[in-house]
Specification:
Length: 239
């Protein structure tokens, strides 16, 4: 994909804002092959996400493309979110500047009516890090935004009980777990991993506090536009 520029510290150590302080984040770096990235390289990430408001018991399945770049010092950036298969609608819909995505209703919304989603607060600044939790380690991409309220998320619009309704779900930080499958670098969102990373679920304008959940139905594949094997590395560990 999908912290961030403001999270850079002198020795590259971040500690999750939690009373237990059990989770620690170490700044990693992007590699192409075995060489550290030293300039901005364009990327494209594709996958399927299930966007849920658990209070409303609503869920929309969206196929998307995240365009952006990876760069030196662990940084990367998401500049645009596009539809993978269903096509785009108006670019300024739902009060956003991103194109709307047509999504499939899985639960809650009327199945015969259009369901649409737009990304909030693009561009998203992201950063690759090594997360340590009780001896276990995971490579992650942390998402945030410096646009406006410094939150990332989505606005969904669908028909419920015959009425068109909007629901905006945002969070200051989101995390996706990175894994390497063959030569493919995958990013996976899940409620379980968000909780493991001691981050908050999204707050939704209709459903309420920590009711917004992102689940990867198909893990996102992060690929370099010009080819090459993209991996992450920290202190000799490579994913």
């Amino acid at each position: 994909m999908g912290v961030t520029l403001f999270a850079l510290l002198a020795f590259g150590v971040l500690t999750a804002a939690s009373a237990s302080a059990a989770v620690t984040f170490l700044l990693a770096e992007w590699l192409v092959g075995s060489t550290a990235v030293t300039t901005e390289l364009l990327t494209e990430s594709t996958g399927e996400l299930l966007l849920e408001d658990t209070a409303l018991k609503s869920a929309l399945l969206c196929s998307g493309i995240l365009d952006g770049w990876v760069g030196p010092n662990s940084l990367d950036y998401i500049s645009e979110v596009l539809s993978l298969s269903a096509g785009l609608i108006a670019a300024t819909a739902l009060g956003g500047t991103s194109p709307r995505l047509k999504c499939e209703v899985q639960e809650g919304c009327a199945p015969g009516a259009a369901a649409e989603v737009v990304a909030i607060n693009l561009g998203w600044e992201t950063e690759v890090e090594l997360m340590e939790d009780g001896g276990s380690t995971f490579f992650v991409v942390l998402f945030t935004s410096t646009n406006g309220s410094k939150t990332v998320g989505w606005t969904a619009e669908c028909t419920i009980a015959g009425v068109r309704a909007e629901d905006a779900c945002t969070t200051p930080q989101a995390a996706a777990e990175l894994t390497l499958e063959g030569m493919n670098l995958l990013a996976n969102f899940s409620e379980a991993f968000t909780e493991l990373a001691e981050l908050k679920l999204a707050n939704c304008s209709v459903g309420g506090t920590e009711k917004g959940v992102v689940e990867s139905m198909t893990p996102g594949t992060i690929a370099l536009n010009e080819g090459g094997e993209l991996t992450a590395s920290s202190e000799g560990v490579v994913s």
